[in-house]
């Protein structure tokens, strides 16, 4: 059972982080302020911190900076907009989740992060052909050359490469990258096209991100 230290003063988020995550086998210690979260870090050992960006006393990103001064514990930030993600301090946050939050999707994200933490050598670097992903540093290189990806492109690439060979529907990507309230599925196709232009030597015949007609997209597997 994982032990989550979570911080929010919003009742709907507290319900998801507290009662609902218990059903997925997590134990959550829930606090309402950033100061209390930092104090609790000094008195107990936690597997992951899940922080609402909009806390009443301390900005969530400032909390992440302070945690990074004392710990490498993974940090998940709960945000309301894509602009919030763009303002994140580099390297301080392990993952982002857009509100409104689906408890099942949150469980999958928490589990994936904890799996990487438990097996850091395997989780940090992933090689797929000439593509090397560093999930912690949030960098991607192709044949040793650094790729310049937008935050959205990087999040889509991370989601697809979590399980190479698995087919991800557009609805899944919308829910986990843009948020469950986003209605424009064409934004997925546009992001995939942009990613292919950076990953593929021949975007018309992709080997990294393939379209599975009628279902969605599949990353690899690439040897």
Automatic annotation (TrEMBL):
SMART domains: REC, Trans_reg_C. Residues 122-221 form the OmpR/PhoB-type domain. Signal peptide: none annotated. GO terms for cellular component: cytosol; protein-DNA complex. Residues 3-114 form the Response regulatory domain. The modification 4-aspartylphosphate is found at residue 52. Keywords: DNA-binding, Phosphoprotein, Transcription, Transcription regulation, Two-component regulatory system. GO terms for molecular function: phosphorelay response regulator activity; transcription cis-regulatory region binding. Residues 122-221 bind DNA. PROSITE patterns: OMPR_PHOB, RESPONSE_REGULATORY. GO terms for biological process: regulation of DNA-templated transcription. This is DNA-binding response regulator, OmpR family, contains REC and winged-helix (WHTH) domain. The lineage of its organism: Bacteria, Bacillati, Actinomycetota, Actinomycetes, Mycobacteriales.
